[in-house]
Amino acid sequence: MDTHTSLAPIAFLDLKPQRARIETALRARLDAILASCQFVLGPDVTELEQRLAAFCGAKHCIAVSSGTDALQIALMAENIGRGDAVFLPAFTYTATAEVATVLGATPVFVDIDPTTFQIDIANLRARIIQVRDGGKLTPRAIMGVDLFGQPADWPAINALAAEFGMTTIDDAAQSFGASLGGKRLGTMATATATSFFPSKPLGAYGDGGALFTEDDERASLFRSLRTHGEGKQRYEVIRTGMNGRLDTIQAAVLLCKLDIFEADLASRARIADLYDSRLAGAVQIPARVPDSDSAWAIYSILLKSGESRDGLAASLREKGVPSAIYYPKPLHFQPAYASLHDGASLPVSEEIGNRILALPLYPDLSDADAHRVCDAVLSSV
Ligand SMILES: *Cc1c(COP(=O)(O)O)cnc(C)c1O
């Protein structure tokens, strides 16, 4: 007899218990903002920039309006546009490719590793050489993505960028708080972009993002681009920028969440460990990137086939366990990008979308519910 059927369904993501943990501190900050009426780039934003930079050991942090805008500003600062090739994994969120496309550059899609889901370094090298020898596009940037919370292989990406005279941009939208070689993400690439979309490991209560860099010149360029390309004086416009500013209220939320972020990361890691230990053998669990700590934005398992994945998702749903698919289709197969793709086959990205399934993972998911997720998976595969 299934004793679980009477239990309420588990949420895929429930932010309410976390909100309760920060509520008193947040209300105090919100009251101060309402009193001051400094709603955009107010004092909380400056405080947030300092605390985020300290958190990840970066020299500069520039808070912006979203992760997408952070990525776009990073590319704009390099003057990347028409005729330029930007290398990025085919298996990522659309925003990574979108910013290159919006600026007129050509996204060059690269395959991923089938066990860690991170950009495949051998394929990256092959794609760079292919584009360089093709002579139509100038290889300009590698946008590594730290997918699902784990870091990409930054030493290898940076070595390739140096070899081929390119810059590196870290799309750490899912992975702020993760570390590689004992260092937090934020200093791995020339520029690091992260997102504070509510569902990310460090999420605001609306859109937000940040850029990190060690380079003084880029830092002031990012600040200028964030506010319409303004110069030293207000209303002096020295370049074409954008409205990429962060709201003060979002900064207040993030400051309160930063106070509990280490604890939340530990909770996420504990649940991932629990899933690993109970599910290994029954399904393919996500391989850990060596010498790293994941921010565990997403915990995805791999099934043998698309058929078993859909059956599993349905069976889980019956048991009150939700699941999600990141991502059903690689970017080079999406209508928005298909015409920009050079036709290269990217077999891992093309296959994994049919077999991948994400399980609930958030800091306030109880161990009892995590075990319930595992029970449901184990009785369904
Ligand atoms: C969420 C996400 C983004 C975009 O961040 P927004 O804040 O939603 O604009 C970019 N890249 C990746 C990999 C993401 O997951």
Please provide a written account of the structure.
The protein is α/β, with parallel strands linked by helices. Helices cover 41% and strands 14% of the residues. The chain has helices spanning 16-36, 43-56, 67-77, 94-102, 121-134, 154-163, 216-226, 248-259, 261-279, 306-318, 335-338, 347-352, 367-378, and strands at 60-64, 84-89, 106-110, 138-145, 167-171, 179-180, 183-184, 191-195, 209-213, 292-293, 299-302, 356-359. Strands 1-9-8-5-4-2-3 form a seven-stranded mixed beta sheet, with helices on both faces. Strands 7-6-10 form a three-stranded antiparallel beta sheet, with no helix packed on it. A two-stranded antiparallel sheet has the order 11-12. The relative contact order is 0.17. It binds pyridoxal-5'-phosphate. Pyridoxal-5'-phosphate (PLP) binds at residues 66-68, 92-93, 95-96, 145, 171, 173-174, 195, 197, 207, 209.
List the keywords.
three-stranded antiparallel sheet, 2 domains, globular, alpha/beta, 13 helices, 381 residues, binds pyridoxal-5'-phosphate, Aspartate Aminotransferase, domain 1, seven-stranded mixed sheet, Aspartate Aminotransferase, domain 2
Structure summary:
By secondary structure, this protein is of the alpha/beta class. It has helices at 16-36, 43-56, 67-77, 94-102, 121-134, 154-163, 216-226, 248-259, 261-279, 306-318, 335-338, 347-352, 367-378, and strands at residues 60-64, 84-89, 106-110, 138-145, 167-171, 179-180, 183-184, 191-195, 209-213, 292-293, 299-302, 356-359.
